[in-house]
Write a structure and sequence with these properties.
Layout lengths: L10 E4 L7 E2 L2 E9 L3 E7 L5 E7 L1 H4 L2 H15 L9 E5 L6 E5 L6 H8 L4 H20 L12 E4 L2 E4 L4 H9 L15 H4 L6 H17 L9 H10 L12 H7 L10 H10 L16 H7 L18 E2 L30 E8 L5 E8 L9 H7 L6 E2 L4 E5 L4 E4 L4 E4 L6 E4 L3 E3 L5 E4 L7 H10 L5 E2 H4 L5 E4 L5 E10 L6 E9 L3
Antiparallel strand pairs: 1-3, 1-10, 2-3, 3-4, 4-5, 5-7, 6-7, 8-9, 11-12, 13-23, 14-23, 15-16, 15-17, 17-18, 18-20, 19-21, 21-22, 22-23
Helix pairs in contact: 2-5, 4-7, 4-10, 7-9
Length: about 525
């Protein structure tokens, strides 16, 4: 199966020495990915607009059967027009190296979002289903069946999902697979009729959409993480496993996963079911709140790239997750990075200028303005004496956030995930521990519950300076009090992926404005 994506990926690479500088009049800038069909490049039109250009591998380009299928699939794809698809812009089916250009979507795939952030909330999954169902309407309206709808073929953009690879990859897959009962697709998301090698219909894509929604809401495909042959057998003979899926999605997803294609809802029925669902509230809108805060924060890093440089082959590898910082004199880059240092609290208005590389090239400077507190007591303990437990009012409660890596921290004041060094009152993390500002205080609860009163008492009597993951796991919440004592955050560690992976916490905020 192919794995190329015409959207922005977590990482991109500079052009290799043997990569061409131009294909079909489009100037290549960077590699977005590679797969069984070929390489996908970030390229630019003569007028400077970015596109995703897929160039076919040489061994496929020399196969007459592939060329015939590729031309057919491109012809089909050109007829597909929809807001939730990546539009085909141009193609060179007769070129020495066949190629295809689609709209460039600066967004990660759903597969990448789920890998980094885990299962999504019910409302987000429902809206995803509605957007993808509308994309399928456009695809089916052009007499095309996707046949390989899966998380890797859905891009998650701020204004809704985009379905990609609607049939193009099948040309390569069909050449690679021969014989009776040809199956094209991904077993974990295949409908029973696909598993049996029968004709795929629009209902086949509806089944895949149901399987995709199970994965997005529960973290596993409907027939488990298992070998391909087992997944295909279960798809045909066994009911889907919805035990990890929120109960309010069971009916709708169960209908999508019906064994009989005729029993599955149409895309129109699906969209109407989403509209009627209580979690959506009668309006299918991809507004700012349709994605969880952590995902929305990550999407803010996916920008449309700037104009390509004059010498594309000279560009270094660019990543969207980190920007190398200069090493102090005498430092050893082979050693692990030091733990995060507590940052001093600002006392006046200031501007922090952060220069960072944009995804896939270009650069920008971001400015963050932060106000100082009007006045602060000399110590936090003095403030706590003047602020009893009942003086604190709830702010946000039980907000679950994920820091993808150590370049992101938790903004305790606003309940958001932000780039490192962006928040004044923060909770940052390394691979093994949390860190807080230099002038904040912390306390770890001895049991599995913690109140504001317990936090105040614990900070006064048993404050801590270490917040290792091993000390706060096993249902030991901890709290952080701001330097002026007006703000308290109660934190629960939900998950810390070993080796410096993502860290998920649940945050509740309390404020004393007296």
């Amino acid at each position: 199966m192919t794995s190329e994506h015409p959207g922005a990926l977590p990482t991109s690479a500079a052009l290799a020495v043997d990569d061409p500088e131009e294909i079909g009049g489009y100037r290549l800038h960077a590699r977005l990915g590679s797969g069984g069909m070929g390489h996908v490049y970030l390229a630019y039109t003569p007028g400077g607009r970015p596109v995703a250009l897929k160039a076919v591998r040489s061994e496929l380009a020399g196969d007459p059967e592939f060329r015939h299928r590729f031309a057919q699939e491109v012809s089909n794809a050109r007829r597909i027009h929809g807001l939730y698809t990546a539009q085909v812009i141009d193609a060179g089916v007769d070129a020495v190296t066949p190629w295809l250009a689609t709209a460039y979507v600066p967004a990660p795939s759903l597969h990448e979002v789920l890998r980094r952030h885990g299962p999504l909330p019910v409302r987000t999954v429902l809206l995803l289903m509605a957007g993808i169902a509308e994309a399928l309407q456009s695809i089916h309206g052009a007499a095309v069946v996707h046949r390989d709808l899966k998380p890797a073929n859905v891009l998650v953009a701020a204004d809704g999902p985009r379905v990609i690879d609607f049939g193009i990859a099948r040309a390569a897959d069909a050449v690679a697979l021969t014989g009776a009962g040809l199956r094209i697709g991904t077993p974990a998301f295949m409908a029973p009729e696909q598993a049996l090698g029968r004709i795929a219909t629009p209902a086949t894509d509806v089944f895949a959409l149901g399987a995709l929604a199970v994965y997005a809401s529960g973290g596993r495909p409907p027939f488990g993480d298992c070998p391909e042959s087992v997944a295909l057998y279960r798809a045909v003979h066994e009911p889907p496993d919805l035990s990890r899926v929120p109960v309010e999605l069971h009916d709708l997803l169960g209908q999508c996963l019906a064994k009989d294609p005729a029993a599955r809802p149409t895309t129109t029925t699906l969209i109407e079911a989403v509209r009627r669902h209580p979690a959506v509230g009668a309006q299918v809108r991809f507004t700012e709140g349709w994605l969880p805060t952590a995902v929305r924060s990550e999407l803010s890093r996916h920008h449309e790239p700037s104009a390509p440089p004059e010498s594309p082959h000279a560009q270094p590898t660019v990543t969207a997750t980190s920007v190398p910082l200069p090493q102090p004199a005498g430092s050893n880059p082979a050693l692990p990075p030091p733990p995060p240092q507590r940052r001093s609290r600002p006392v006046r208005w200031f501007v922090l200028a952060v220069a960072t590389a944009l995804l896939l090239g270009g650069g920008a400077v971001y400015y963050f303005d932060y106000p100082a507190e009007d006045a602060a007591p000399s110590t936090a303990s003095e403030q706590s004496e003047e602020a009893p437990e009942d003086a604190y009012r709830p702010g946000y409660a039980g907000v679950e956030l994920t820091s993808p890596d150590a370049s992101y921290e938790f903004d305790l004041q606003n309940g958001k995930v932000v780039p490192e060094s962006s928040a004044t009152w923060y909770l940052s993390r390394t691979a093994t521990a949390f860190a807080i500002p230099e002038d904040s205080d912390a306390f770890i609860a001895p049991g599995d519950s913690l109140t504001v009163g317990g936090c105040l008492s614990g900070i006064d009597n048993n404050p801590v300076t270490s917040l290792k993951f091993s000390e706060v796991e096993d249902q030991h919440p901890f709290c952080v009090r701001s330097a002026n004592g007006r703000d308290i955050a109660i934190v629960r560690l939900v998950e810390a992926v070993p080796g410096g992976g993502s860290v998920t916490v649940s945050l509740s905020h309390y404020r004393n404005d007296d």
